[in-house]
Amino acid sequence: MFILQNSSSITQIARLRSPKFRQSGSNCTLSFWYYNYGYSVGAAELQLLVDGLKHPTVLWRTYYSEGNQWLKAVIQLGRLPQPFQLSLDKISLGVYEGVSAIDDIIFDNCALPPPALSCDSPNRFWCRETKACIDSLLVCDLVDDCGDGSDEDNCNPDLQCNFEKGLCNWEQDLEDDFDWVRIEGPTPTINTGPLKDHTTGTARGHYLYLESSEPRQFRNKAVLLSPVFNPAGNRTCLFRFHYHMFGKQVYKLSVFQRTLSNTKGWLLWYKFGNQGNRWIRQTLSLRSSKPFQVLVKGIVGDGFTGDIGLDDTSFLGCTLYKGHLPAISTTTSGTSVPATLPTNNCTEKEFVCRASAHCIQMIHKCDFRPDCPDKSDESACVMEVCSFEDKHHCGWYQPALEQTSGADCIHTTNIYKWELGRGANLYPGQEKHCPLIDHTTCTEEGWYLFADSSNGEFGHTADIGTPVISLTGPKCKVVFWNYMNGSTIGSLEVFYKTSNRTSKLWTQSGSQGPQWNRAEVFLGIHSNFQVVFRAKRGVSYMGDVAVDDITFEDCSPLLIPGRPCTSEEFTCANKYCIPKDNLCDFVNDCADNSDESPAI
Fold first, then answer.
1. What does each C-alpha distance from 566 to 40, 273, 585 come to in angstroms?
2. Are residues 213 and 72 part of one domain?
3. Are 223 and 303 in contact (CB under 8 A)?
4. What digits encode the pLDDT tens for the residues 496-508?
5. Beta-bridge partners for 184
6. Is there a single domain that holds both residue 466 and residue 502?
7. CA atoms of 189 and 303, how far apart (whole Å)
8. Is 376 helix (H, G, I), strand (E, B) or coil?
9. Which residue ranges does the record assign to the MAM domain (predicted)?
10. Highest mean pLDDT range out of 299-303, 306-310, 403-407?
11. Does 302 or 156 have the greater pLDDT score?
């Protein structure tokens, strides 16, 4: 089907109408191929005309020539319980010069679910009138999946919100940068955001959206708080919602769960980037032994075409809690409380082995050699080998975050800091400046540590260090793999730090290419010190710094043997024994330089 000009009027409209449809199912989509090419070919739009509604709903638009090619459009219709019709309008102002055509129109999954003779499975729901057998997870989700409304009967309204009459029992967070906006119809900016809500499928329905235009700035966040729920226990508690992320500069939507009112909680789910002009359903399972709350956080992208929509939130198998969440004390240091010590005769200058109550010198704590039978002297120390595959920091910690009210504090969201990452979690385009695979497993599922440059500003630094290391041996070195690729990479540095002195041991700056690179830093003999990795942010977010497989090699200190040194060994002034091959090799193997003495 193509358009021929047959009018000389200034404003010309060609209109193609569909037959009238009685209704559509919840998964209904329409697709077609279109051709719109020419110097002044003009705009076109697809409208939804629903019986009983005065104004049409725009479902799709094209504004200008899109080249000498056929393009595919996919339109989400969803559940429309009233009779409706579609109208494809082609508009030309003044001179019409070009070709507009449409072909291969397909309606997909538009029928209601078929009736079933039985529906005995515990995970299925039998619709009352249509006799369809649907998934029980679709019950009370604000969508008429049955076609007779029976799956939405007898639902608790306090566990649902379609935002038609407000926020229900959701609340705007007071500690974020701006608020979610309730709206009907399309968002103000073209080529981003929904054209209609999810509940009614028309421009008359309401939903929430995140406005990304000015005065909003990149990484500004808007947080929505759910009511508080009782502990889930062994029950299955589900959170269902529909989200819309359409636009070239859409950034991030995430969901958190928390049990303390002044923390951001733990991440349940997130999605990055443009997901297409459609509403997408998401179901999350919630578990907690304490009263909890859900947080929905949207983050603004780097431009005005980054609107994010939210609609039809519902909870299944959850019960409301009559009360408020407790708050974590802001005076806590973020360090763990030491375990109760066994009865012992150790002095203040000795370490108590947890299982045996043996006493060892404090210099032997965190020296890469277990001196306690239960190895408890090395338990609160940096791990000798760390691949981050267990999603653990291996003892490495960030002093700047320890000084806040807990590392989960919502105020630390935009701080330039180290965090765990993996390729499977990257949003589209992020692989250009962040590793797509880790070094350990060489897969997208492998974990690494990286400083996220989408946080912070130019010149900001992020430190991550070891707990205090008591003593190291003469050959001690740190070996690690680093990934520094991107157009605005800052730098990575390694420091040796004591209570009164900090020394730079290694540095690297600028892009090093899209691969993991090995680095080695010699430490040698030191006592009561820390190793610190410092990332420095470049001028933009296109410059993440990552490390993986950090290993302390040959770092355990020398042992004084309970015997005389052999003929193949040299006796150091401090009674250590070392191989004679290590004499006069410019390395302080004895730890007192006696193996490098000119008198040998």
1. 95, 67, 20
2. no
3. no
4. 999 889 999 999 9
5. 206
6. yes
7. 11
8. helix
9. 1-112, 159-320, 384-557
10. 306-310
11. 156
Distance between the two ends of the chain, CA-based, in angstroms? 98
Same domain, 392 and 421: yes
Laid out side by side, the sheet with 43-50 consists of 11-17, 84-93, 43-50, 57-62
Average pLDDT (119-126) is 92
The token duo for 124 is 């299925």
- Examine residue 1 and state whether it is found in any structural domain, yes or no: no
- Kindly report whether the peptide bond that precedes residue 19 is cis, defined as omega within 30 degrees of 0: no
| Same structural domain, 219 and 307 | yes
Type of residue numbered 398:
Q
Instruction: Show the 3-state SS of 166-216.
Output: CCCCCEECCCCCCCCEEEECCCCCCCCCCCCCCCCCCCCCEEEEECCCCCC
| Residue 176 main-chain phi, psi, to 5 deg | -95, -165
**Is 336 within a domain?**
no
* HSE-up of residue 170 (Cα within 13 Å, Cβ side): 28
Judgement on whether residues 502 and 579 belong to the same structural domain of the protein: no
584 shares a domain with 535:
no
DSSP string, 382-410: --SEE--TTS--TT-B-HHHHTSS-TT-G
Q: CA 273 from chain center: how many Å?
A: 12
Amino acid at 36: N
> Model pTM?
0.63
Q: Which residues pair with 167 in a beta bridge?
A: none
Query: Checking DSSP bridges between strand 11-17 and strand 469-471, what pairing results, if any?
Result: unpaired
Burial of 449 (0-12, 13-18, 19+ CB in 10 A): buried
pLDDT digits (tens, 9 = 90+) for 307-359: 999 999 999 999 999 999 998 754 433 334 345 667 778 888 888 888 788 88
- Strand residue runs (E) in 176-319: 181-184, 206-210, 221-229, 237-245, 252-258, 266-272, 280-286, 292-299, 308-316
4: enclosing H helix or E strand:
none
Q: Nearest-5° angle of CA 461, CA 462, CA 463?
A: 120
Q: Are 270 and 255 in contact (CB under 8 A)?
A: yes
Ranges 10-19, 448-457, 512-521, most confident: 512-521
Q: Which domain holds residue 388?
A: 382-401+414-553
Residues near 75 by Cβ (< 8 Å), separated by ≥ 6? 29, 30, 31, 46, 59, 60
Answer positive or negative: Cα dihedral of 383, 489, 538, 299: negative
